[in-house]
Design brief:
The complex is a heterodimer. Chain A is mainly alpha-helical. Chain A has helices at 3-12, 32-55, 71-83, 86-118, 120-133, 142-148, 152-177, 181-189, 195-231, 237-246, 250-278, 280-288. Chain A has one domain: MetI-like fold (Orthogonal Bundle). In chain A, 76% of the residues lie in helices and 0% in strands. Chain B has 9 helices and 12 strands. Classes of the chains: A mainly alpha, B alpha/beta. Chains A and B meet through helix 5, helix 7, helix 8, helix 9 and helix 12 of A and strand 7 and helix 3 of B.
């Protein structure tokens, strides 16, 4: 793995798996300013190391930096892409695929999760096939998806859907199972029946868990989109990254990686922000705990 | 605030048996309990921990299906939960995502009462339980005593024929508990509903009740029916009088017989339905 790769992974990484929990840094003796300075210095040192390895075309036996572009070239390529009309095409296509795949995964995941978490018959009927499908990585669906969907656009949306639905589904199920039975009993005693129980008690009670799933799903959604775009597609940020490789525009590869990281992080942050906004009582409870 | 007098609220329990568990772990929680509460009566069920008094309450609320016997409210058989029978738990069950106002107005919302009417009726009850000014707070922003006030208001807004209270002040500190007992009597003086109040605190039972039904250790049976003769309104000084203490001594003898059995775990008014709601791993 080359150094810029780890950098890009570092950018995209925290957005995906550790959703919802604010990272708590250990208390630094001289306060937050020092902590910030150390972080900035560490970033700068990484950039310098990358620069040194790339410009010296370091060859370390099992890994070579001969074709790795230095930061300055990446910056140039980045500026070029930002001012090119192609950027909006790439970003637009990627966002449309994410939008369609993610929204349908959110609807299906939350809907099925509510049923499975609440009703034993739904769990018995629906869980076995889902359990068989769950361990299959979304990327493994790509060949079959191309065969199943006449439009490559739809097949890519399907891949993002596959990537996002399971974290959303599982977190919804856990959220629903964790609903306090006393709350349900109280709601019933106060005259709540049938579907209103879902709207008034189950859904809001499971909301914090559902938003955790939605945030994780957003991360996996980007991961799958990029894989799908690399294999089939004409536009999109993942496609741009792969195209840069085939055209030997090596700086473009890193630019693409950084864009993917930035978009993945921003969209996960957006989901988390929406979650905070939608569950104000939850923040109060956390503060108290 | 107008005084609402309920002409209904007669509770009849006839030969109630309740069993829990499966196979060899099956046990009898309540054995042959019969009682009759007349309209507007304040009854305390007093008994040691785990004697099944909460179970009786849960059956009346409709959360527990009896193994044998009949449960009647105004002559009609009890079948599942209903707003006519309001249940207050020891630990509050307010909806944490709803404000105090929306929690109290919840029962009316379920009845389809329009928004503005819900709001003023809820405000009226919030004022009655002394929480004016806290309408927009979330439950987690309130103290334990305040949470129970909201809980009581939320149940009363449905104008229940019977109010079922399962050690509602058991988790509060002594000072707050006294205040809440006084508040409950004040509220009950205005909204005269039948009350079945479960407690293991003799002072509490004597201070609140018209009648105390004393239950034995598990399987719970009713071993005494004590009429509490003190005039109302009652003040805290009552608890220091001679008459109060002699009744208290009588209760103590019933609750703590010589060589009595060891105390048991508390039973939930939801019975083993808590277990049937259990989570299955995915």
């Amino acid at each position: 793995m080359s150094l810029p790769d780890t950098l890009a992974a570092g950018l995209a990484g925290p957005a995906a798996p550790v959703a919802g929990q604010p990272r708590r840094l250990p208390r630094w003796p001289a306060g937050r300013l020092t902590a910030f300075a150390v972080g900035a210095l560490s970033l700068l040192a990484s950039l310098l190391l990358w620069h040194a390895l790339a410009t010296s075309r370091a060859h370390l036996g099992f890994i070579t930096f001969a074709h790795v572009p230095p930061p300055s070239e990446v910056l140039e390529a980045g500026i070029e892409l930002l001012s090119s009309p192609k950027l909006s095409l790439h970003v637009g296509h990627s966002l449309a695929r994410i939008g369609a795949g993610y929204l349908s995964a959110a609807l299906a995941g939350v809907g099925l999760g509510l049923l499975i978490g609440r009703f034993r018959w739904a769990a018995r009927a629906l869980l076995p096939p889902l359990e068989v499908l769950r361990p299959i990585p979304a990327v493994a669906w790509i060949p079959l998806a191309i065969l199943m969907f006449p439009s490559t656009e739809v097949s890519m949306m399907f891949i993002t859907f596959t990537g996002a639905i399971f974290p959303i589904l599982l977190n919804t199920i856990h959220g629903v199972e964790a609903v306090d039975p006393r709350l349900v009993a109280s709601a019933r005693s106060l005259g709540t029946r049938g579907p209103r129980l879902f709207a008034e008690v189950i859904l809001p009670s499971a909301a914090p868990g559902i938003f955790t799933g939605l945030s994780i799903g957003m991360g996996t959604c980007w991961f799958c989109l990029v894989s799908a775009e690399m294999i089939s597609g004409q536009f999109g940020i993942g496609y741009y990254t792969w195209e840069s490789y085939t055209l030997q525009n090596y700086a473009g590869i890193v630019v693409g990686m950084l864009f993917i990281g930035a978009f993945g992080m921003a969209s996960s942050a957006l989901v988390r922000w929406l979650g905070h906004f939608a569950t104000p009582w939850y923040r109060l409870q956390e503060k108290k705990a | 605030m107008t005084t609402v007098v309920h002409l209904r609220g007669r509770v009849d329990i006839q030969h109630l048996d309740i069993e829990f568990g499966q196979g060899t772990s099956r046990f009898k929680a309540v054995s042959d309990v019969s009682l009759a509460a007349s309209t507007g009566e304040f009854i305390c069920l007093l008994g040691p921990s785990g004697c099944g008094k909460s179970t009786v309450l849960g059956a009346l609320a409709g959360h527990i299906v009896p193994s044998a016997g009949r449960l009647l409210l105004d002559g009609e058989a009890i079948n599942g939960p209903h707003p006519d029978r309001g249940l207050v738990f020891q630990q509050h069950t307010l909806f944490p995502w709803k404000s105090v106002l929306d929690n109290v107005a919840f029962g009316l919302k379920m009845q389809g009462v329009p928004g503005p009417e819900r709001t003023w009726r809820a405000r009226e009850l919030i004022e009655l339980v002394g929480l004016k000014g806290f309408e927009r707070h979330y439950p987690s922003q309130l103290s334990g005593g305040m949470q129970q006030r909201v809980e009581i208001a939320r149940v009363l807004i449905n104008q229940p024929r019977v109010l079922l209270m399962d050690e509602p002040f058991g988790a509060l500190d002594a000072q707050t508990r006294l205040k809440m007992q006084q508040l409950l009597l004040d509220v009950w003086a205005r909204i005269r509903t039948t009350v079945l109040f479960v407690t293991h605190d003799i002072d509490e039972a004597l201070f609140l009740a018209d009648r105390i039904l004393v239950m034995s250790a598990r399987p719970g049976r009713i071993i005494d029916d004590i009429r509490v003769p003190f005039a109302r309104p009652r003040e805290a000084q009552l608890t220091t009088t001679h008459a109060f203490n002699s009744l208290k001594r009588h209760c103590l003898e019933l609750l703590h017989p010589q060589n009595g059995p060891a105390p048991l775990d508390r039973l939930s008014p939801l019975g083993d339905s808590v277990l049937s709601e259990a989570h299955f791993a995915i």
